[in-house]
C-alpha cells in the first residue's frame, strides 16, 4: 500500500501536539490572570453613584462613626444603607442648596430610595452575616479597607471564596478588641510578644479566647 502522508508529517504532528499544550496553558494563564484582575474583581475601581458621597470627608474629616449611617451592622446580617432621612439630618442645614445634593432632596420629598450602586455585592449563594463578624472582633477595615481615605467608594478586597477561607483558617491577624472594631487604624503588624509554638501574637490568642472564635471552614458556614 502506498504511503499516504509524507514522513515530515510526523514532525508536524509532534509539533502540533506540543504547541497545543503550550497554547492551552497560555490561555489558562490568561483566563486565571483576568479573573483576578481589577477588571473582574472591581478592586480599586470606583463605581458610579447617583450622589458623589465621600467616606473620606464624612469619616476622616468629620469623624462620623460607621454606625451613625450603618445602624444595623451590629445586630443584623446586613450593614444597611442609610435612609435619606439620615442624610437630611445634616443636609437640611448644611449644603442645603447644593446642586450635587438635589438627588438626596428629591428622594426625601418623594419618599423613594436613592438608587445606590452596591460596591460589596456577594453572590446570592453565599451567606455573610455582619453582626457575627462584628461580635467576634473583625474590624470594618479588614474587609472594606481604609474607607476614611476613599473620596469615592471602591472595593478593597476581591471577596473571592479563597480570600474568605484564608481568614477563616487564620483569623488571628484580623481580630481586634470590640471597642476597636469600628476604628480605621490598622492592627500592629509586628506584635512585641508571640507564642513560641505558633508565632501568633499573644494578644491575638487572648482575643480568640475572649471572643470564643473557632476556625470555621466547612461549606455550610457560608452556603446554607
Automatic annotation (TrEMBL):
Residue intervals passing through the bilayer: 12-35
The Class III cytochrome C domain, residue ranges: 47-102
Keywords from the named record: Electron transport, Heme, Iron, Membrane, Metal-binding, Transmembrane, Transmembrane helix, Transport
SUPFAM superfamilies in the record: Multiheme cytochromes
UniProt KW Transcription keyword: no
One of the record's GO molecular function terms: electron transfer activity
Residue stretches in coiled coil: none
Protein name: Alternative complex III subunit ActA
UniProt organism field: Lacipirellula parvula
